[in-house]
Amino acid sequence: MSPILAINGLSKQFGGVTALAGVDLAIEEGEILGVVGPNGSGKTTLFNVVTGVHRPSGGTVLFRGQDITGLKPHAISRAGIGYTFQQAMAFAGLGVLENVRIAGEHVGTDSTANPWPTPQALLDFVGLSAVANEKAGVLPFGSLRLLGLALALATRPSLLLLDEPAAGLNDRETTALVGLVRQLPGHGISVCVIDHDMKLMQMLCRRLAVLDFGSKISDGPTEAVLADPKVLEVYLGGDL
Ligand SMILES: Nc1ncnc2c1ncn2[C@@H]1O[C@H](COP(=O)(O)OP(=O)(O)OP(=O)(O)O)[C@@H](O)[C@H]1O
């Protein structure tokens, strides 16, 4: 099967800084792929280029075989790529359910069956039904993260990019999040996740790709990648 996302020779310069230096990466249909790497290795830039926040300096991004390189974020969202931010993004003054409703209005949909046909169904899925009518701004941090996931899912992605989804969550909240994300491929949603937490990545991902100074240095089954001498060298003295 061809990959849902094919990244070829992707590069990004910020002035004199090379954030991405010719990255090739494929995300397969139905997988949960992890992307790891030290601070500043280019992970968020990779997501920002795929989602159209930044234009690449070179290379291409194919989504389901279509060239989406350099398209605007709304066009990429409409094509079916969803994104959660490191900071949960919601309208603080609006209700939780209202936030999900609005997120679902501002995107196109593809022809795939919608596993959560209503905003309420999405809130049930992420476990926030009890606070449906609360203002988003009063939610505790962990719930705000779950709302961020619901907002991304409301855009009906077939590929979801998660940027440090468990940052700041306690163990119970992280376990809940892992349980939700693992269900996504069963709903037709492929996932690519960035995180520094290797335990989380081992729970979520059968495959990892590792970036270092903007280049991919390893890519394969999670256990093999974590034992790769090149990866161990990068993380020497770190938290691997
Ligand atoms: N908008 C920008 N302008 C200038 N430089 C940038 C910009 N965004 C990222 N960079 C630089 O590009 C490099 C890669 O940064 P990026 O945020 O992609 O790394 P990262 O792997 O996501 O890091 P972290 O794990 O700390 O989030 C860094 O040197 C960073 O300073």
Automatic annotation (TrEMBL):
Gene3D superfamilies: P-loop containing nucleotide triphosphate hydrolases (3.40.50.300). Signal peptide: none annotated. The keyword ATP-binding applies. One of its GO terms (cellular component) is plasma membrane. One of its GO terms (molecular function) is ATP hydrolysis activity. Keywords: ATP-binding, Nucleotide-binding, Transport. This is ABC-type branched-subunit amino acid transport system ATPase component.
